[in-house]
Amino acid sequence: MAEKDTLYSEKIKHKGIFDFKGLYSYAYDYLNSEGYDIMETKYSEEITGDSKEIKIEWEAEKKISDYFKFSIKMGWKFLGLKKIKIKKEGKEIDTNSGVAEIKFKAILIKDYENRWEDAPIWKFLRGVYDRYLIRSRIDEYETKIITELNDFIDQIKSFLVLEGKK
What we know:
elongated, Delta-endotoxin CytB, alpha+beta, five-stranded antiparallel β-sheet
């Protein structure tokens, strides 16, 4: 079985005005442009009165080599999401208000094709391989995925701030 190491977790929260569809599209396009394949594993929507509660889960994966994969898991939660109209540069536009909460996890997956799982000796050799032969490469990839996730989080924060100042 592939070995998955959760390296980093982060959560951001934004209360106010933002464009839900714009945020969703922006995040998808950003990850896609970075080479990630995105899978939406959950989407639920609950309507109460004039507001919605939306929960979404994404798993984005990027193949780095035949042995390594990067995985970013995201859990989105939107509470009290309402459609509103605001004026921007003299024009009335549709947007949303509410609370957006997004949780992120950076995961390094090793041996995702399970090539080292056929026999106990192969598992042992994989441990030796990971600990002694490619330790510096693992450290490099751990740093790289954390940096990529932090860059992505910064982009999401910037989007929310810019969209919120309409």
